[in-house]
Design a protein that fits this description.
Helix content is 87%, strand content 0%. The chain is built from three helices and no strands.
């Protein structure tokens, strides 16, 4: 008659004592060491392990599939975000280039105006220097002639 659960330590000890009487101590210990403390039907068989392996493999494939879907989704979202950032950078680069072109145009215009102003100032200065030089020459001549006349008059007399 099968027991309702694993045998107790008392039952194992009684069995060991009886086996020692019948088989001898060494053989009785060998036999007791080979008996599991559970029912035989509770031990896993190769088919139990194979079924467990299949279930575990199926669960792992399912979970890995979820992870791969998440990674793919993340990759897609990240690519979209990078595309958006690249678009904004391109737009900013275009706007910045347009602003620099505008600034360069204004600098060129300012350079042209400044060059024209300097040319005008140089012309005016050259004209004023020429007038001043003429005035100085005629003033010097005007002073030199009477002095020369006085020197000649004093020298001839």
């Amino acid at each position: 008659m099968p027991a309702s659960g694993p045998i107790s330590e008392g039952q194992r000890l009684a069995l060991l004592n009886r086996l020692c009487e019948v088989l001898g101590e060494e053989e009785a210990n060998t036999l007791m060491d080979s008996l599991p403390p559970v029912y035989w039907e509770q031990l896993a068989t190769k088919s139990d392990l194979a079924a467990s392996e299949q279930r575990l493999g199926s669960e792992m494939r399912s979970e890995f599939s979820k992870v791969y879907r998440e990674l793919h989704s993340l990759r897609t979202e990240t690519a979209a975000e990078f595309a958006k950032v690249y678009g904004e950078l391109h737009s900013l680069r275009t706007e910045t280039a347009a602003e620099f072109a505008k600034v360069y145009g204004e600098l060129h215009s300012l350079r042209t105006e400044t060059a024209a102003e300097f040319k005008s100032v140089r012309s005016e200065m050259a004209l004023q220097f020429a007038r001043q030089t003429r005035t100085m020459v005629f003033t010097m001549l005007g002073l030199a002639v009477p002095i020369l006349g006085t020197i000649l008059a004093v020298g001839l007399s």
